[in-house]
Amino acid sequence: MKTAQSFNHDAAVKATTAKSLSKLYFTRVGFSVIWVTLVAIYAAKSPQVAAILLIIYPAWDVVGTFGDIRINKANGPVTPQYANAIISIITTFAVGVALNSGVPNALIVFGVWAGLTGIIQLVLGLQRRRELGGQWPMILSGGQSVIAGISFIAFAHKPTMGIANLAGYSAFGAFYYLLAAIRLSKTISIANTQTI
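The structure corresponding to this sequence follows.
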């Protein structure tokens, strides 16, 4: 049976984790808004800038994933996050290589990455739902990422498919992170009342 002290400690840890995750999610929203804006401006005007943006996106995911690992390292296994980081590092280089043979090949690589990281996000969302609550946006985002990845692969060679189409994917991701960050505020509020 838990003592009042250990219960307060657990609630404090939960509140701290939720606050840190919320900050990380808001940061990811900010990045995605900037990335989508730059893609909208440069996708048609400058293929070189668009290509750099395509490489930056999975590279940023590596940064975000290591932030997630730092926040959650004391809360249990972080194997899915490390797997996500490795996949995103490989993807960053693979997109750069694939761009040498054209945007369609880069979109296929991007699609594989979106699908794999979507599965990981889905698993993490389901795990954290039990611990922190407020994860249904992340679960939806993971599922949407898997579907988006399949569509990127399926339509990579269509004439209308280009880097600009990835902006919608990123915008949806930002929306889900925003919802998750807002939803975590409820977890923070509940945990804070439990420590009083």
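Residues 4-194 form one domain.
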